[in-house]
Amino acid sequence: MKNTDPNHVHTYDAQGRITCCTLEEKIYTDAGGKRLLHEEEHEEEPDDKEQGQADIKGKSAIIKYLPALISLMMLLIGIALDNYVKPAFFTGYIRFAWYAVAYLPVGFPVMKEGWDALLGKEFFTEFTLMVLATIGAFAIGQYPEGVAVMLFYAIGELFQSAAVRKAKGNIKALLDIRPDAASVLKDNKYIETKPENVSVGETIQVKSGEKVPLDGQMLSVGGSFNTAALTGESKPKSIYKGEQVLAGMLNLDKVIELKVTKKFADSSLARILDMVQNATTRKAKTELLIRRFAKIYTPIVFFLAVALVLIPYFIVGDYLFTQWLYRALVFLVISCPCALVISIPLGYFGGIGAASKNGILFKGSNYLELMTKINTVVMDKTGTLTAGVFKVQDIVTTGMDKNDFIPILSALESKSTHPIAKAIAEYQKNDVQAYATEDIEEISGHGLKGKVNGKYVLAGNTRLLRKFNVSYDTAIDQVAETIVVVAINNKYAGYVLIADEVKEDAKQAIKQMHLNGIRQTIMLSGDKNAITQKIAGHLDIDKAFGDLLPEDKVDKIEELKQDKTNIIAFVGDGVNDAPVLALSDVGIAMGALGSDAAIETADVVIQTDQPSKIVTAIKIGKATKRIVIQNIALAFTVKAVVLALGAGGLATMWEAVFADVGVALLAILNAVRIQRMQF
């Protein structure tokens, strides 16, 4: 199939078969759903751009609906002339010509689609079925019915496009947070340019009320930002010097300066937009099943329609060709599978949109469906169930002064990005730069080692000291809270006590998981087992395991997967837990907005850092599945009944239109309900 859209990239399955450009993809494209990141740029001046876009949208809407309006008016006039006015001239060729002209505005585009399908060696499509049925109706003199079938089919297409536009509205809303320009520092003055033209390391300025155009590091003292467009949370977020600010945030406070840390194409916002745009390419099993079913079902009903014309000739005494041809045409119209192949992917598309509205990004409808089967939720502790915002509570030293101890430790910890290390570095900001560090090495699951001002320093958990055969006061093993133990020149020097807080919605989230079909909740942590069990007891988590290395977490998941009844979701930060995220049935990145590893590894990204969103994701998955099942049941039931009536001559083209277009519209209306649901 030739690709004429420069913004569309064909996709293929493992067997090399094209997986895009299906009927639903065509409709998504017509509705703008496949070009979320490739909006056309108009040539108006900036002041006239908005008005110009509004004019273009208004004209395109009129053009889109004009053919159906023309056909509808001519059909109604023709029916009035046939049944009420009854002029003498409205017969024969004139009557045929009138209805033929009424047919063409809506019929020609479908004929073109059918012809393109034939060129692509696809005969059994809804386009060819509609063309055959309506031309057949003209052939036996049923002109109004032929026009009506094609007209209502065209109206159905318009409704489908409108429904897709509505369903993708929450996703497309993300585009509104893409800034159009960036104010970048050049030759000691700020100039306006496109975000795509700004390089990493350059300084940009963001005024109050403006959107942040690129990911960057705060150079100013601090500022307040509205992150609702990214996370769905309306509460302003305060960000201070040295911390990360993400593209799409709205500056609420004062003029700030940022040092750009990523190109726009690599920014978290751009990657999330790309991820959501491509979510529809990953199909749920139900979608794939219905698509395969339609490919088998459509040719079967076509040949049944042919048989309905031919077989009665041999077994019916008063056989009348036009009578049985009419029944076959009715049969063809009813058999059109558009209610299934459109409403079902639309249901999943709507589910993805509803999830986006709630700050949850699904990488595909297959994960949306899989969320309904999850019965085991395994969670990391730090950053998932706890805030991951650590603060130094106490400093205990042995044989040295605290004023000497803490700067050495802070200098070492300043080289790590771990939340605990950041807390220690934050505690002692002054004089850290005066301490020379070298040979820094992070030992996974243990801590840090390196040289500070020539002294050999170890900082981490007690496993780290045991690993390097450093003796220490074993009484500290009984301390329940998180501590960082320190050895200087292979001699135990003391420890720092660190506190973390449980997230405010964590306890309610665990309760809601149990109420929504999760049979066991498990917490895994590299922290002390004592503190892990304490938090698990507070949150009513079923099982908890502490003192785990990253490879131990993998072992725990593999152990759970040995029971084939376990369908596992793992929730972690998406960086340290990447192997476990990949191993689980559904990997969920918690609080991972801005984390490249989370976006790459996880199947679902929760932007709001709230454990309760895990339950929201499950609820959205279940609501989507209910709607899909309802649509399947509706389509099959109505079509089966009307097919039987049509074969028996008890259903006309009008009933056939309801069985096809009417059911499709009902299914579409049902599918878009998810956009109005509260989760």
TrEMBL record:
InterPro entries: ATPase_P-typ_cyto_dom_N (IPR023299), ATPase_P-typ_P_site (IPR018303), ATPase_P-typ_TM_dom_sf (IPR023298), ATPase_P-typ_transduc_dom_A_sf (IPR008250), ATPase_P-type_domA (IPR059000), Cation_Transport_ATPase_IB (IPR051014), HAD-like_sf (IPR036412), HAD_sf (IPR023214). It is found in: Cell membrane; Membrane. One of its GO terms (molecular function) is P-type zinc transporter activity. It holds the Pfam family E1-E2_ATPase. It catalyses: Zn(2+)(in) + ATP + H2O = Zn(2+)(out) + ADP + phosphate + H(+). It is an enzyme of class 7 (translocase). It comes from the Bacteria. Keywords: ATP-binding, Cell membrane, Membrane, Metal-binding, Nucleotide-binding, Translocase, Transmembrane, Transmembrane helix. Its EC number is 7.2.2.12. The keyword Nucleotide-binding applies. The chain crosses the membrane at residues 62-81, 93-111, 123-141, 147-164, 296-316, 328-349, 627-647, 653-672. GO terms for cellular component: plasma membrane. Residues 178-277 form the P-type ATPase A domain. Belongs to the cation transport ATPase (P-type) (TC 3.A.3) family. Type IB subfamily. This is P-type Zn(2+) transporter. The lineage of its organism: Bacteria, Pseudomonadati, Bacteroidota, Chitinophagia, Chitinophagales.
